[in-house]
Amino acid sequence: MNDFCLEFQNFTLGYQGHAAVHHLSGSVARGSLTAIAGANGSGKSTLLKGIAGILKPISGSCAAHINRLAYLPQQSELDRTFPARVIDLVALGFWQRRGLLGRITLQDRAELTKCLGAVGLEGFEKRPLDSLSGGQMQRALFARTMLQDADLILLDEPFNAVDARTIADLVMLVKGWTAEGRTVLCVLHDHVLVREHFPQTLLLARKLVSWGPTPDVMTAANLMRARGFQEAWDERSGWCEERLAPDGHGHCHPIIDKREQAVAAHV
Ligand SMILES: Nc1ncnc2c1ncn2[C@@H]1O[C@H](COP(=O)(O)OP(=O)(O)OP(=O)(O)O)[C@@H](O)[C@H]1O
């Protein structure tokens, strides 16, 4: 197997032909734990959606050398009013193995109970989802992720609005996954958490600012560069234009570049 789990080549993603992540190239090592950091609107969720295949690239590619992928979106994207119980949500983790209409075996049931125990939700099987606290919901989603038995796990702000104890428990689980050889990419806003627990960081400001070992990436200079790029990038000027090159191939042209250079020159 390839030592790399993901390989990006000029990977460019966006909406309605406008790029939100520009020309990303590089590789993610198998079994690595990477934080994806950046300001609001810097393209972090867009990147995860591109890796998960929910969003098709405008240009470039992302080669995933994996068997199974698990993607945990932001909680705000989930509908908790759906009349379902914890067991129904967590059992969805089996669908890649059993199919959507597949029967859950006794062994599956035991595995599910074990995963609920691992996230501290023993006995919660029959609780309706809308009765869970934010932290309990996040624990249930982590249990579902565990059941997916994926070799690439994408987490979008999994520690938002959960207390310190829940964060500590969930971080332990994530570290356990990478110890098992799984690769984890995690969108995070909390720089303290990033520095403390994530060996690798990818810092985005719609384009790549820096990527590598966390102490090398999370420097004051890089964070200032990221902020500078982001501030320069207002909604009007931030979009890429899809242009046709003379050979007829579409090309994503970041019209912000001159403004970025101007801002970067001042920081
Ligand atoms: N469905 C969509 N349609 C159009 N534009 C979108 C869509 N989703 C995101 N965008 C835009 O793409 C840009 C990047 O958004 P994205 O959600 O990836 O940022 P983010 O770094 O995850 O932000 P946050 O930290 O606020 O969650 C933003 O300008 C956003 O408004």
Automatic annotation (TrEMBL):
InterPro entries: AAA+_ATPase, ABC_transporter-like_ATP-bd, ABC_transporter-like_CS, AztA-like, Metal_Ion_Import_ABC, P-loop_NTPase. GO terms for molecular function: ATP binding; ATP hydrolysis activity. Keywords: ATP-binding, Ion transport, Nucleotide-binding, Transport, Zinc, Zinc transport. Residues 6-231 form the ABC transporter domain. The keyword Chaperone does not apply. Pfam families: ABC_tran (PF00005). PROSITE patterns: ABC_TRANSPORTER_1, ABC_TRANSPORTER_2. NCBIfam families: AztA. This is ABC transporter. It comes from Pararhizobium antarcticum.
